[in-house]
Amino acid sequence: MGWGSRCCCPGRLDLLCVLALLGGWLLPVCRTRVYTNHWAVKIAGGFPEANRIASKYGFINLGQIGALKDYYHFYHSRTIKRSVLSSRGTHSFISMEPKVEWIQQQVVKKRTKRDYDFSHAQSTYFNDPKWPSMWYMHCSDNTHPCQSDMNIEGAWKRGYTGKNIVVTILDDGIERTHPDLMQNYDALASCDVNGNDLDPMPRYDASNENKHGTRCAGEVAAAANNSHCTVGIAFNARIGGVRMLDGDVTDMVEAKSVSFNPQHVHIYSASWGPDDDGKTVDGPAPLTRQAFENGVRMGRRGLGSVFVWASGNGGRSKDHCSCDGYTNSIYTISISSTAESGKKPWYLEECSSTLATTYSSGESYDKKIITTDLRQRCTDNHTGTSASAPMAAGIIALALEANPFLTWRDVQHVIVRTSRAGHLNANDWKTNAAGFKVSHLYGFGLMDAEAMVMEAEKWTTVPQQHVCVESTDRQIKTVRPNSAVRSVYKASGCSDNPNHHVGYLEHVVVRITITHPRRGDLAIYLTSPSGTRSQLLANRLFDHSMEGFKNWEFMTIHCWGERAAGDWILEVYDTPSQLRNFKTPGKLKEWSLVLYGTSVQPYSPTNEFPKVERVRYSRVEDPTDDYGTEDYAGPCDPECSEVGCDGPGPDHCNDCLHYYYKLKNNTRICVSSCPSGHYHADKKRCRKCAPNCESCFGSHGDQCLSCKYGYFLNEETNSCVTHCPDGSYQDTKKNLCRKCSENCKTCTESDNCTECREGLSLQGSRCAVACEDGRYFNGQDCQPCHRFCATCAGAGAGGCINCTEGYFMEDGRCVQSCSISHYFDHSSENGYKSCKKCDTSCLTCNGPGFKNCTSCPSGYLLDLGMCQMGAICKDEAEECCGWENVDSGVRMLSFISSLQTLGRL
Predict the structure, then answer these.
(1) In this protein, which residues make up the domain named P/Homo B (predicted)?
(2) Are 262 and 419 in contact (CB under 8 A)?
């Protein structure tokens, strides 16, 4: 490229541009790029591979760029520090390295301190035309103060964009030819259950009835920076679709859909369910229930498929999502909606099974969701909880990229711990006894993408799930109009059975059989032993059914983290909404508890323990006891000592069993261990650490044990610092300052020097006295290298930098022939040759990338140099959505080729 491509001045003005830069004139005419001698490089293979490539082309690897995995900072000392021309020379051939996925020479950017009106700044730029209007992704609208957002850009800045995560949309198909979906479309995550083939393209009609799935898909994984339409939350995730709503929906159709290719698909997103008409009670039938259970037990190779479900749009019909067995399942993540303002949308349903919330539409004047639309178009009119579930799926994809080993329950725990009430407007926010703030409208609050990926990075898998089925209470109780029935059950949490013992709760299911002349007049509440009250059912104006409920399962997540054992209180209210036959009263025939959780505490207490809110109701609304000023005779919280208590909560203890923690309002609460940022002091007190400490053994800055994010622990001084001193490097995974090897002045890893102490020189990534080729310095004198080494930095075959004739460098060692999963690299520099690792999809190969495979792992088939998952069709007309890992059968690629021949792809 000539100068003309690097300067705004065309033709004969090229020279003037250079003179302008040198002389300082004509600056208003030209805006010239200034290139530095620093590069950002993305390299697969980790630090050793990055160091090898840097050394090969004369660069110095200055380490990982912040928290961006596989992105490295390269420096070249022999290029011009500042130049109007991009650098050229042999070092520029680095871009041809198979492991180099991306490289960019850094350009000086003009940045101005904006002490005023900094809200105009937009931190992320995409060329997609709708990006500036995507209010729920970023805060760039300066017409009003930015509300609490979902911190999606924060997750991107940490390097997470959904790469290698597979999401499929269970809906009416997706338009895989859409310019915003083509790049990330995944045929292995797609199927047409309605049409019995593998092509999920929607059926077109004049009204564009089948636009729903395409709209949901764009929210998750619309490609970024392709100058078209929008940007997906996980814009590097792979996206597929299962076409299953454009036809008769049966139990078999649903079961096929939610169990489609579970070893390949990570997340299933569904924005549908039974009618939201305020009178339907319906849920998964046996096949689909089994498919859900199999998915969480065996999907994702045993980690569990993640099912995301929209909570429902029946708000105007006074519907209640507890009557929807899909959102009411412990296996699904039920997602609610909020408007941009944080107000409750008119369509929103309330229930105790909702886990969290994302943005969607509100009133007619509120902004709506922007996404892909049918016929390769865009829309800014996507609405309802249908828009919220795919957003949640996209955010979960970011978390799974940060930690692919999260189980299906880990994902729910991470959501619970990181979602926040923020500016969401609800009058029923309460804090349960485990310290989690929760609402029937919004679950645990607005999802936070950055907080989720940070939590995922450091996450430890929660203990095994235990299921405790308590005994059934079959004492029949009459439910009379304008009154309530109250039933108390003392649960043990199956403490006598180690395999079923539930000490700490996750999901609580209440199985109820009740007869009633008008089901819509019923309201049901459940109060936990810790005093947390969940509304399992609200009155439904349009539900005239006389069927009642037969073994219907209501579910609440409001007791998450609380203790399971103790008195559970079920209340059933009958509030007649119109005249009916009062001669036939309702009857509570039986009810039982199914407690899901862990036998031990899954993690330490949350960082803060807000005071437990106790909403007082009138006697008509809530006949439960008011503790008032009378002497309390009920059970104490487990954290209370034997001295006793004056109420049921951890803030009612007269003395603590373990530790005291003081809230900001000076309320004292008893905890089993001190929260993050505190230490165990004398007299059972939790005292604050220094501001930068995550944990400590005292209140001073030199008594830290671990550090908050952005700080690193200097183990020599027990202090938290932003930059590690010379002679040490930053271990970003553990937030520690680690010592460099004794010869390094600076380093990026213990034995990866970037600068040497006086009297030593850098040889590869090690510091040593300079010796002639074939010898290395052992600390006293120059010694011969191993016989395999042409040059080396230390003793033995593992110290080789380059290999002698007849040997090849492979994974840091010299070998006589390439091992399996490696290929001989015919290119060489200075006569030294090497063996490179095959692409991860290949068993053996003859070159770089995924198109040079010569054999494949078990369960995959070789086709045109690529390894594809095997697909077997017992009957091509009917069973092409059944997937198995097999070594023979009809190949997926061959099937797609046949579709191309027919003109369908």
Answers:
(1) 461-601
(2) no
Q: Per the confidence metrics, is the pTM higher than 0.70?
A: no
Q: What is the per-residue pLDDT across 201-224, written as a single tens digit (0 to 9) for each? A: 998 888 788 899 999 999 999 999
- Residue of 178, 212, 558, 786 marked active site: 212
Q: Which helix (H) or strand (E) holds 659?
A: strand 659-662
Given the residues 190, 329, 386, 530, select the one marked as catalytic.
Answer: 386
Among residues 524, 542, 420, the alpha carbon closest in space to that of 479 is found at 524
Cβ pair 585, 478 in contact under 8 A:
yes
Whether 652 sits among the annotated catalytic residues: the reply is no
Element (H, E) at 408: helix 408-418
Catalytic position from the list 70, 128, 149, 171: 171
Residues with Cβ within 8 Å of 314's Cβ and at least 6 positions away in sequence, in order, are 276, 277, 278, 320, 321, 347, 349
What is the number of H-type helices and E-type strands within the chain?
A: 10, 51
Q: How far, in Å, CA of 428 to CA of 797, rounded? A: 68
- Examine the residue annotation and report whether 186 is marked as an active-site residue of this protein: no
To the query of whether residue 171 is one of the catalytic residues in this protein, the response is: yes
d(CA 42, CA 217): 28
What is the distance between the alpha carbons of residues 864 and 861, in angstroms, rounded to a whole number?
Answer: 10
Asked if pLDDT for residue 882 goes beyond 70, the answer is: no
Structure tokens at 497: 């059975």
Q: Where are the domains of the chain?
A: 1-30, 33-107, 131-457, 466-598, 693-739, 771-837, 844-901
The CA distances from residue 468 to 367, 506, 556, in Å, are 45, 12, 15
466-598: which CATH architecture?
Sandwich (2.60)
- Lookup: tokens for 110: 């003009």
Q: What is the pLDDT of residues 823-849, one digit of tens each?
A: 988 776 566 788 888 887 888 998 888
Domain range 33-107, its CATH number among 1.10.1040.10, 3.30.565.10, 3.30.70.850, 3.40.50.620: 3.30.70.850
